[in-house]
């Protein structure tokens, strides 16, 4: 860690497990990194949480937008009392508690400028339009600042990386190096990478999906521009048809580029439109973890960065009659527009995807979970935000016979220094009850 320009001794008790992965040199590089996270919705707070736990020098939060009811289904550091207050300010105190070696600041500005960007090692952008990403991505590329863009829309998500024209990976695999261990990777800026995309395929049963979702995300910005920033209505079929036309128009304009798709999957596009207003915390946990890991690669030079786009979808989680192929889809949508309408509930972001009836089923579940370690903490967080077992007839029970140690604090984010020596299950249960009092 760095204090007053001098690097203080590495806290090996806290980072003992992480040192096995990154090594002392990687940790020291990370301890001199300053990261800007723009967008503090559910996705942004997930990214910030992971980066702060890892131990960078500073994290600056940027998001003047107020917390809304729909944020509460995915923002684990915001509650009903925070509605109407700026997301960055709401998040700062609880994020700062995660690691006292990391300075956490708020950038109180409506818009980020190039002068702001040049102060940082990495910029992680988790909100804003396609056009804003083009603008911020170009500034970062020109200034040599590493840029990570991430987004989620319902059950869809994306991550993009640009670590500049010259980025050196000092340890590409984590294994013993051959005779030549330095690898230089040149990356395209956001605008060039959009029209000539390279996709990391993570699910080979969905090999054609990335190119389709690539268009959907850009078309979503086109749709929002025509509707004063509004996305298609939840499970609104006429809005979905208008969105599909935006995708068609965009695809036609890209005919001579590598982003052109010869055959659009219009059923997939409609599912994207139906759920684009939704907030799904498990999807944000996946994308947030991925984006944070890329930011840490940018800081440390450890492991190969993403080349350059990765897309994710979980449409199999949607009701079966709307997630299957178009030719097999029932004419009646299982999730009706009325069933997905907001109710002034902390679960509105999730109801927009799965409907109110589905939410009631989640609330009645009874789960028994063994283990409150790193994965257990993440599962409990997701259960709490989703409302699993939140009704009087439901419950979640967790057991873990282990007690909290200092090295746990680097990965098990429900625990704090004052919890050391207490039982994991007791502390974890109390922490998630504070996230969701229901």
From TrEMBL:
InterPro entries: ThiF/MoeB/HesA (IPR045886), ThiF_NAD_FAD-bd (IPR000594), Ub-E1_IAD_1 (IPR042449), Ubiquitin-activating_enz (IPR035985), UBQ/SUMO-activ_enz_E1-like (IPR000011). The keyword Ligase applies. PANTHER family: UBIQUITIN-ACTIVATING ENZYME E1 (PTHR10953), UBIQUITIN-ACTIVATING ENZYME E1 C-TERMINAL DOMAIN-CONTAINING PROTEIN (PTHR10953:SF4). Belongs to the ubiquitin-activating E1 family. It comes from the Eukaryota. Pathway: Protein modification; protein ubiquitination. This is ThiF family protein. It comes from Opisthorchis viverrini. One of its GO terms (biological process) is ubiquitin-dependent protein catabolic process. One of its GO terms (cellular component) is cytoplasm. Keywords: Ligase. Residues 15-303, 347-438 form the THIF-type NAD/FAD binding fold domain. GO terms for molecular function: ubiquitin activating enzyme activity. Gene3D superfamilies: NAD(P)-binding Rossmann-like Domain (3.40.50.720), Ubiquitin-activating enzyme E1, inactive adenylation domain, subdomain 1 (3.50.50.80), Ubiquitin-activating enzyme E1, inactive adenylation domain, subdomain 2 (3.40.50.12550). The keyword Manganese does not apply.
């Amino acid at each position: 860690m760095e204090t007053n320009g001098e690097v203080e001794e590495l806290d090996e008790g806290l980072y003992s497990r992480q040192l096995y992965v990154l090594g002392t040199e990687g940790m020291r590089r990370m301890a001199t990194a300053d990261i800007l996270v723009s967008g503090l919705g559910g996705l942004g707070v997930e990214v910030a949480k992971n980066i702060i736990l890892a131990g960078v020098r500073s994290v600056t939060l940027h998001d003047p937008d107020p917390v809304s009811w729909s944020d509460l289904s995915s923002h684990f550091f915001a509650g009903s009392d925070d509605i109407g207050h700026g997301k960055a300010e709401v998040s700062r105190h609880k994020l700062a508690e995660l690691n006292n070696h990391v300075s956490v600041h708020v950038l109180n500005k409506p818009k980020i400028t190039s002068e702001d960007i040049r102060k940082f090692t990495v910029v992680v952008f988790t909100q804003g339009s396609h056009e804003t990403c083009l603008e911020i991505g170009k500034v970062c590329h020109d200034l040599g600042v590493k840029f990570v863009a991430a987004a989620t829309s319902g059950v869809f998500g994306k991550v993009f990386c640009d670590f500049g024209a010259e980025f050196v990976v000092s340890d590409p695999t984590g294994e013993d190096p051959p005779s030549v261990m330095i690898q230089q990777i040149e990356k395209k800026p956001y605008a060039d990478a959009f029209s000539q995309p390279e996709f990391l395929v993570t699910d080979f049963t969905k090999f054609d999906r990335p190119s389709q979702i690539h268009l959907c995300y850009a078309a979503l910005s086109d749709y929002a521009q025509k509707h004063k920033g509004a996305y298609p209505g939840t499970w609104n079929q006429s809005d979905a048809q208008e969105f599909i036309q935006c995708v068609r128009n965009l695809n036609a304009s890209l005919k001579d580029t590598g982003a052109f798709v010869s055959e659009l999957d219009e059923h997939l596009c409609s599912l994207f439109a139906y759920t684009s207003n939704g907030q799904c915390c498990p999807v944000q946990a996946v994308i947030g973890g991925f984006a944070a890991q890329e930011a840490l690669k940018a800081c440390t030079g450890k492991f190969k960065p993403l080349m350059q786009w990765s897309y994710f979808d979980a449409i199999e989680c949607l009701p079966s009659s709307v997630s299957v192929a178009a030719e097999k889809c029932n004419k009646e949508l299982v999730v009706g527009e009325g069933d997905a309408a907001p109710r002034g509930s902390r679960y509105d972001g999730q109801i927009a995807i799965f409907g109110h009836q589905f939410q009631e089923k989640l609330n009645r579940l009874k789960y028994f979970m063994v283990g409150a370690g790193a994965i257990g903490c993440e599962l409990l967080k997701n259960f709490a935000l989703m409302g699993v077992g939140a009704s009087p007839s439901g419950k979640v029970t967790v057991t873990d016979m282990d007690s909290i140690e200092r090295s746990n604090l680097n990965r098990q984010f429900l625990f704090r220094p004052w919890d050391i020596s207490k039982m994991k299950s007791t502390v974890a249960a109390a922490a998630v009850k504070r996230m969701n009092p229901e």
